[in-house]
Amino acid sequence: MNHDKGRNGGGEIVRTSRQILHDENVMIVDHFLPAGDHLRLWEFFQKQQFRFVNSDKWIKAFRVQDGHPLRGPTFRLGEPPPRDGGMQLIYYPTETIIDSFIDSLSSAELDIPGFLKCVETFKVMSTLYAYPTGTALSWHKDAVYKGAFIYYVHPYWGATWGGELLVASPDDNERATDQTQAVSTPAFDAREESAFLMDTGKGRYYMPKPNRLIVIRPGVNHMVKKVEPNAGENLRCSISGFFE
């Protein structure tokens, strides 16, 4: 793909075209939104109300040692879910910049349904999350959905700040394609999960690069690495969600 470049007001070179990469488990799209939309989404993000992820109920993907990430409203394209799980649900269209984000997920250029190997028109559930220093999201898989995604809203991120997305080896995910073989999210005792992941003990990592979208196939083991003290007052800010 060509990389068109321009210069911002400070003379810095800015890439303006999307870069789309694939591997066995994930699709990575850099420069997902136009720069102006990314900035407007960041401004919108900061004006929302957040609360601790487990303030209403224990979402067991966030384990005790993961600290206290913050969760904002959930924006939904499609009919109401069977259970809302205490979410602050807002339905598309919202007449805000979040609509442009949801519309971009349907881009023919990306062909997300083709990547996820689903032919139906999908529903989208998008939730705002903010991870301060010391917070993380443990190993889990989203096998009940058609796929998952993460979009990084923050305008800058340092290479030593942590918060990387870790994705287990394709070998592990192939061994668990049958959901009956998948290791469920443990509440307290993670030995079975550890044995499963340590059998091959390898995988890949992806930096939380601003304006990057990552789409994850269903059933893929992944986690969010802890945000390091080097991040200081900077929060790892993302929109995470699912295709249904």
Using the CA coordinates, give the radius of gyration: 18 Å
Characterize the overall form. globular
Supply the number of helical segments: 5
| CATH architectural designation | Sandwich
Number of strand elements: 15
Percent of residues in helices comes to 10-25%
**Overall pLDDT level:** 85
Return the CATH topology. Answer: Jelly Rolls
Distance between the termini: 29 Å
- Succession of helices and strands: EEEEHEEEHHEEEEHHEEEE
- List unreliable stretches of 5+ residues: 1-13, 177-182
The structure class reads alpha+beta
Explain what the structure shows.
The chain has helices spanning 35-46, 97-104, 112-116, 170-175, 191-198; strands at 5-7, 13-15, 19-22, 26-30, 51-52, 70-77, 89-91, 124-131, 137-140, 147-152, 165-168, 203-206, 212-216, 222-224, 236-243. α1 (35-46) packs across α2. By secondary structure, it is of the alpha+beta class. A hairpin with a 3-residue loop joins β3 and β4. It is built from five helices and 15 strands. The chain has one domain (32-232, 234-243): Jelly Rolls (Sandwich).
